[in-house]
Amino acid sequence: MTHPVYSPATADPAELEAHTVGRADLLDTLTTRIAGAARDGARPHTMLIGPRGAGKTHTLRLVVHRSLADPQTAERTLPVLIPEDTLAIGGYLDLLVEIARAIGGDTADAARSMRHDRDAIGIEQAIMSAAAGRMLLLALENLDRVFHRLGRDGQGSLRAWVETSTAITIFATAPALFAGVTSRDFPWYGSFMVETLTDLTVPEVAELLAHRAPALAAFAETSEGAARIADIHTALGGSPRVWQMLADIADIPMLRAVTPAVEAVLDRLAPLHQARLWELPPSEQRLIVELARAGAPRTVSDLAAAVGVSNQAAAAVLGRLGESHWVTSHKDCADRRSSWYDLTDPLLRQVLRFRDR
């Protein structure tokens, strides 16, 4: 089977292993951390940070698989993997039911019944009964969205259950740090060990190409192939998803020409970015487009003038975009009074400029 670009959770663990390149140290660290937690009772909660396409799901699933390959860890662990982008969680009770559903059997049936009575404690007890003294390894993807749906009270309930049970370790992912884990105002402040997924290097993406497209392997090993891959890497970065896409469509002439390879990937990414942008209000769309067209960070006053609004209105919109991880900001060392804004995802700029043409 072809390793899925968007749904690695559907792949067999052996398939994940076969298509894994780079990040060996991080994988070893995370696997050892889970095995140690199952063995000695420590409960180190971990959160993987990386933008879309960085390989968060792949890494999470592979680490869980490697951890459970050790018989002692498997015997002492009940893995609960909540599906990525689950839409079934609207509050804390729903999260508990999804955990019970992942466990299955009588636990799932009991949880659904108790949700009607809003019996959170009863569901928690049923889940712990199913764990039967084992560590419950709870894998939660897109934790920022989950916490948003839980709300502050739901986050507090989850924190209380985790602390009182002393049996739960959370292994989570998120596209970026968010207030629920960085602000002292929220129950989970400072509770996660944060690991960041970095871009793949040029040699690593060459290895990925060879794995996914054997016909390109020989070319990737030549000096010319390495140079062209480096050129494409400069344009597109080292996102595993991007290079999986490229491997599926590229041939040697396309890699040699560079530009057709870059544009083919941007064309395939465009509908995804477009769908996300259409979900935003027009005021936010306009500022994102201006940042993309600029090709460099811009100040609030620059952006306000570009779209014809007041500085105050632009600052408010940029604040919302920052909270939802669309933009980042920094201060200039030479002028600490101004904040400079840029797009969080550099590929978004590439896609919008490509479509502008």
Automatic annotation (TrEMBL):
It comes from Mycolicibacterium diernhoferi. This is MarR family transcriptional regulator. It comes from the Bacteria. InterPro entries: P-loop_NTPase (IPR027417), WH-like_DNA-bd_sf (IPR036388), WH_DNA-bd_sf (IPR036390). Coiled coil: none annotated.
